[in-house]
Design brief:
Layout lengths: L8 E6 L7 E7 H13 L8 H7 L13 H14 L19
Length: 102
């Protein structure tokens, strides 16, 4: 019996910072491995969550993620940006100004 009962799946999302992320790639087994290899090659952070992949794999390529998943995906994107040292325009990652500093 194989140690992998279910096929390995992977999805890729495209996020332009303006619109909801869209599904840009999806695949099982060899295609999933190819998606992951490309992500590694371009140093795209990889987040592993089989349940989330199963949900998003139901979408067609180019579809926006469902509104119900906005918060979940936003947290993943924020973490990926943090790993790369990026932050949204206008975002101040430092401590808030203290009124005592004036």
């Amino acid at each position: 019996m194989s140690k992998h009962n279910k096929p390995r799946q992977a999805i890729a999302l495209n996020y332009d910072g303006q619109q909801a992320p869209t599904l840009s790639a999806k695949g099982d087994d060899e295609l999933a491995e190819a998606i992951l290899a490309i992500a590694r090659e371009y140093e795209v952070p990889i987040y592993e969550n089989a349940e989330l992949v199963r949900l998003l794999a139901r979408l067609e390529l180019g579809d926006s993620i469902p509104e119900e998943l906005y918060r979940c995906i936003a947290e993943i994107i924020a973490f990926a940006w943090h790993l790369k040292g990026k932050c949204p325009a206008g975002f101040n990652s430092g401590p808030p100004d203290s009124p005592l500093d004036s």
